[in-house]
Design brief:
The structure holds two protein chains of two kinds. Chain A is mainly alpha-helical. Chain A is built from five helices and two strands, in the order ααββααα. Helices cover 63% and strands 4% of the residues of chain A. In chain B, strand 1 and strand 2 form a beta hairpin. The two termini of chain B are 18 Å apart. The chains are: A mainly alpha, B alpha+beta. Chains A and B meet through helix 4 of A and loops of B.
């Protein structure tokens, strides 16, 4: 009985892990979409990020900058300099996704 | 020469990420030196590879800060140490190939037309000494997490600019058209396709009366043609106003009836409470405040006689004087102003000779302007973290052996 319970816990836990991996992957894909097409103006117009095929020269190169997830989120929410704030333009889910995406790929592609 | 502040008290910590880093440092006994060293390890971008890498902190390609201890006592900041902040990446270096051919469009005057830099040079020349200070200078001292570069003291410089006064050009073009109230200047950066230009263009408006009295169209900076990093071949210089108003690579100079509706003016660079969105009815980042800070010593010192020095300015008004405290603001002594008085808009180095006993000393400075305004003790938080000027957090804690 105890063994069966343990096995059930294990299954549930590993199931969750699998689900969260899949969620993570989906978030990264959504993040890339936000970066290249969903945000308006598009992130890729102004920023360089090799993983997204973006070579914008208006704002800082994210490959150079390699911002953390929190850095990206703050910049998107608040804007900065001539960068407009995207709070209210993108959904919280989209903002989380693009922050996760940029912070995980910036500077990683040669 | 790395900044080495022995941090013990919460009140001397920088805001934002710096708080955590510095707090961690204080606990482990590793001071701020390590943090600064890491920041300094990022190489200078190509367009500023002529700058003094040792004296600068590269936050990003377009945000480069002067280290606090690299500001000396001569008054003028050397070009290779002047901070850099570009809202948009600079245009190609090729715009400097033939400086005199650079064309500027003048509007809002009786006879609007394009004028080349070569022609501007024939109209007149004035030189002005001016504090160039980024609106975000001191953002790193705020406790709330504001978007943008966490500048400490190093987004400021004192620079000599030479060029033709705006009023001379306006007179040459027949005078201002009726009803004009603002000087609106537009930068020559390349804007991306597919974006509403108003959302990204660097275009700033300031009150016209002040501009006609004080602004110049400058081509020379501290005796050299203005570099690309600092807005060459031609930059609008607006003494007493924050850096963003000093538009680089200026392509259009217009006297206008209203402020521009570009985002950088209408909703950007506005003072507002934390959490409030930017709007045109909030105060714009125009006139600078009275401010000072110590640049030496910042860290350890030997007991006995020491020269405490720093820089002070009135911002929009002339500087009247500056006091120094070595006990965290309990008592103050008048400092001596150094070097020549370079005018209302310049900063002035100051010095106080002191005898410091062994122990720790919280050293700070407090400037007063010609209108009797005294530098604030703390700066009320504002959403974007603009211009932290409070003497309490600008203080440094110095350990005397």
């Amino acid at each position: 009985m105890r063994f069966a319970l343990g096995a059930a816990v294990l299954i549930v836990v590993s199931g969750r892990l699998l689900a969260s991996d899949a969620d993570g992957q989906a978030a990264l894909e959504l993040g890339k979409d936000v970066f290249t097409s969903l945000a308006e103006p598009r992130c890729s117009v102004c920023h360089t990020l090799a993983d997204a095929g973006a070579a914008g020269k208006v704002g800082p190169s994210l490959d150079e900058q390699q911002p953390t997830e929190d850095d990206v989120k703050l910049s998107i929410m608040e804007g900065g300099g001539v960068m407009p704030p995207y709070a209210g333009i993108l959904t919280p889910e989209q903002i989380d996704a693009v922050a996760k995406y940029v912070s995980s790929v910036a500077g990683k592609t040669q | 020469m790395a900044e080495f502040i022995s941090v013990h008290r919460r009140s001397f910590l920088a805001g934002g990420a710096g708080v955590l880093a510095a707090a961690a440092c204080a606990r482990t006994g590793v001071a701020v030196r390590a943090q600064e060293a890491t920041k300094a390890s990022k190489p200078l971008p190509a367009y500023v590879d002529w700058k003094n890498a040792e004296g600068l902190i590269v936050h990003s390609e377009n945000t480069i800060e002067t280290k606090r201890e690299f500001i000396g006592t001569s008054g003028v900041t050397p070009n290779d140490l002047v901070y850099v902040r570009n809202n948009i990446s600079p245009p190609d270096q090729s715009i400097l190939a033939n400086r005199d051919a650079w064309e500027v469009t003048f509007e809002g005057v009786a006879n609007p037309r394009n004028v080349t830099l070569g022609e501007l040079k024939t109209m007149g020349i004035e030189t002005v000494a001016m504090v160039l200070q980024c609106s975000g200078n001191g953002r790193g001292f705020f406790e709330h997490k504001a978007s943008g570069t966490p500048w400490r003291t190093g987004a400021a410089a004192n620079v000599l600019w030479s060029g033709v006064p705006l009023r001379t050009v306006v007179d040459a073009l027949g005078g201002a058209s009726a009803g004009m109230k603002f000087l609106t200047s537009t930068g020559g950066e390349t804007l991306p396709e597919g974006v509403d230009p108003k959302t990204v263009v660097v275009e700033r408006s300031i009150p016209m009366d002040h501009a006609l009295e004080n602004a110049i169209l400058a081509w020379e900076m501290n005796g050299e043609p203005i570099s690309l990093a600092h807005g060459g071949p031609l930059r609008v210089i607006t003494p007493g106003y924050y850096g963003v108003n000093n538009v680089k690579y200026v392509k259009r100079v217009a006297l206008t009836a209203a402020e521009t509706d570009a985002s950088i003016q209408s909703t950007g660079y506005r003072i507002r409470p934390v959490g409030v969105e930017g709007a045109p009815d909030q105060p714009s980042m125009w006139e600078m405040k009275v401010k000072s800070w110590v640049t030496h010593p910042l860290a350890d010192a030997k007991s006995g006689k020491i020269q405490i020095h720093g820089v002070a300015f009135g911002g929009f008004s002339a500087l009247k004087g500056v006091e120094v405290s070595t006990d965290g603001g309990n008592t103050w002594k008048d400092a001596q102003l150094l070097g020549p008085d370079m005018g209302r808009y310049a900063w002035r180095p100051f010095v106080l000779s002191a005898d410091l006993a062994p122990g720790t000393h919280a050293i700070t400075s407090r400037a007063t302007d010609s209108e009797g305004r005294v530098q604030e003790e703390t700066t009320e938080p504002n959403h974007r973290g603009y211009d932290y000027s409070g003497w309490r957090r600008l203080a440094v804690e110095v350990t005397v052996a």
